[in-house]
Amino acid sequence: MKYTCICGVPYTALPIATVISVEHDIPMVIRRKEMKDYGTKKMVEGIFDAGESCLIIEDVITTGGSILETVDVLQKAGLKATDGVVLLDRQQGGDINLTNNKFNIRSVFNISEILELLLKEGSIDQETVEKTLKFIEENKLF
Q1: Which of 14, 32, 52, 86 shows the greatest Cβ crowding within 10 Å of its Cβ?
Q2: Measured between alpha carbons, how far is 129 from 51 in angstroms, rounded to an integer?
Q3: CA 20, CA 25: separation in Å to the nearest integer?
Q4: Mean pLDDT per 10-residue run, the chain (142 residues)?
């Protein structure tokens, strides 16, 4: 699917989305967390037409809640938002939650891959890996 714009989930993913926008010459829209009572008073800022497809960019996913909030705001503004990319999936069920809500998510990395890399490089030990994976398993949200 071709996307006509991208949107970073406020606020940490905004710099990531900005770089992608500039590097790939894809227009970017900005979702506000709250409507201002001055200026344009819009929840989505940017130039777009209703019905266009917007790719959502996120930094870290735990529950997927922030992405779903962003989907809701973008759809109310007239954009189609069914797909996203996340830099790091914490593997606590956010991907399942999003899939259950008919949203397609792809992650660049997941926490298991990062732990494996850090272990291989000697930055952490096996005990830390096991404790972290146990924490993740015991704290899955979906």
Answers
A1: 86
A2: 45
A3: 8
A4: 91 96 96 80 92 98 97 97 97 96 97 97 97 95 85
